[in-house]
Amino acid sequence: MRLEKAKLVFRKDWMEIKRNWQVILPITILPLVISVVLPVVLTLIPSLVPASQTQVNGFDTLIQNLPSNVQEQLAGMTDVQSMVYVMALYFLAPFFLIIPLMASSVIASDSFAGEKERKTIEGLLATPISDSELFFGKMLVSFVPSMLVTILSFAVYTILFDVLSFSIFNGMLLLPNLDWILMIFGLAPTVALASIGLTVIISSKVKGFREAQQISVILLLPILALVFGQAAGAVIFGATMIAVLTAVFAVIDFAVFRIGVTTFKREEILAQLA
Amino acid sequence: MTVIEVEDLTKRFGAFVAVDRLSFGIEEGEVFGLLGPNGAGKTTTIRMLAGLILPSRGWAKVKGYAVGSNSLKVREIVGILTENPSLYERLTAMENMDFFAEAYGLSDKQKKQERISELLEFFGLWERRNDKVATFSKGMKQKLAIARALVHEPPVLFLDEPTAGLDPESSKEVRDLIAKLSFHENRTVLLCTHHLEDAEKLCNKVMIINRGKNVIVGTPTELRDKISGTPTVEISLKKLTFAVVEAAKSVSHVKQVDADTANSKLTIVLDDPQKGTPEVVEKVVEAGGRIFAVRLVRPSLEEAYLKLIKEEQR
Is the per-residue pLDDT at A172 higher than 70? Predict the structure, then answer.
């Protein structure tokens, strides 16, 4: 595979995407809003709990369900501090796995299906760019912006949370920590690549963008299960678990790429043109 | 040297046979026309030869590279104008050209820019190079798509309806360009068209296909002769008299004489126009006929084509 050809496909698609506000707006605004709203809401919790109240109703049960290592981290904290700590560092973490999926979904769904709809695909398929270069280029153009948005959202979330929670934790800065760094720079990219790969495969098989996007929404379900699992305290992402999941997803990424290239058929794509 | 070799080429889509056992060869520098009505299999044939789809049966080679096993190499040496212009409308003309130039392997920045400038200037698009393709007229898009096909100076060109959507002036420019590419630059061109005028003016050889099958192949002249028989002789006179008509009929090679008195014109069918025409002219003059012009009239390729397609569809 010639990487420069994949990069060429990436550059061409990126030039098109950055001129399309219908794509740019949803992939940037929503993640950034989440990364601003979440820390603001979190740090508002202390002001919602009366100063005299040191116990938060039902919170004890939630804490008891957490793994012992997390409970140890909470030793010496008030309930309000514990609540903000657990939510900011653990419960909201999986939202940052959803951001790259949301951001990449529109672009990955459009990758081949959009070219079919706009009748530009035949010219592209006629070039001496191999299947793997084409497939990888299409993956890159979904991956790079979605990860940029994710990292930017993470930066905004971290800075805002640290600034706003400065007084709650008596000047202690909680983010970024090792778990979050592993998640943003390890797990999020590998999860995103798997989802992008599958969406690009779907996009090459269906006739239009809408169809591709509707099918690709199904890919969000396992990640949503993780989000709700962690929010309910059923699954907690510790550094080891994140590292293991990253390795597992790296293998899945490779498999998805191989399947994508093997099942990529120029003929099938052309047959779908009106 | 045979640049394109096609043997028993067949393409099936399920039960539908789009291309049915086509065999032909195209020599270097030749313009080969593929003619046929809509749905005849022209585009499918081009797609197979360009390495975009695989044949169901038979084989094809382009400059010795087998379609299928060496499709990537085939795509490198071929310039293709697809049925749709296949241009990126959110990109400018320059950006489109730049992308395709690099995709076809033009990595030297200076050479690439020179080639793109040359083509955009030739097609009159230089002033609009920084405008998005979405703002272009249909004709401008077609010109840009042709420029894209030529950007890597391919030795083999597949042009699917190159003059579609162009005004007469631009059509002529494109025809002149194809002639130049073939005659002066020795490039091999496979031209898919239902513009008979293009085929007649440009093609060394023409193949008419219908329902995926080869109906007839030959030079445009051979095709006309095969389909519509020998040419007729048309004589325009100052005045058409009974004596003149009788004189023409008296010639041994003459099979039929049609007299158009309103236009003072004789249309004569001869066994052998080469031999018979001088004798006819001599007899007409002897009978007092004053001749303005003598023309050998062949049926146009269009007439021949329409006749053939009609017969095929019966």
Answer: yes
Report whether A177 contacts A52 (CB < 8 A): no
Q: Is the pTM of this model over 0.95?
A: no
- CATH for the B2-226 domain, from 3.40.50.970, 2.30.40.10, 3.30.470.20, 3.40.50.300: 3.40.50.300
Q: Which of B51, B52, B53 is nearest to B62 (CA)?
A: B51
ipTM of the complex: 0.86
Q: How far is CA A139 from CA A3, A179, A198, B234, in A?
A: 13, 26, 10, 68
Q: What is the number of CB-based contacts under 8 A between chain A and chain B?
A: 69
Determine which of A116, A124, A125, A264 to mutate to test the interface with B (most B C-beta atoms within 10 Å).
A125
Count, in order, helices (H) and strands (E) of chain A. Answer: 14, 0
Instruction: Determine the distance in angstroms separating the CA of A16 from the nearest CA of chain B, rounded to an integer.
Output: 6
Contacts of A138 in chain B (CB under 8 A): none
Residue A225, φ and ψ in degrees, nearest 5: -60, -40
> Which residues of chain A does B53 touch, with a Cβ-Cβ cutoff of 8 Å?
266-267, 270
| Contact criterion met (CB < 8 Å) for A122 and B104 | no
pLDDT tens-digit series, residues A56-88: 566 677 777 777 877 888 888 887 888 888 888
Residue ranges of domains in chain B: 2-226, 230-298
CATH 3.30.70.100, applies to B230-298: yes
- Mean pLDDT over A13-32 rounds to 88
**Nearest neighbour of B72 by CB, restricted to A20, A128, A270:** A128
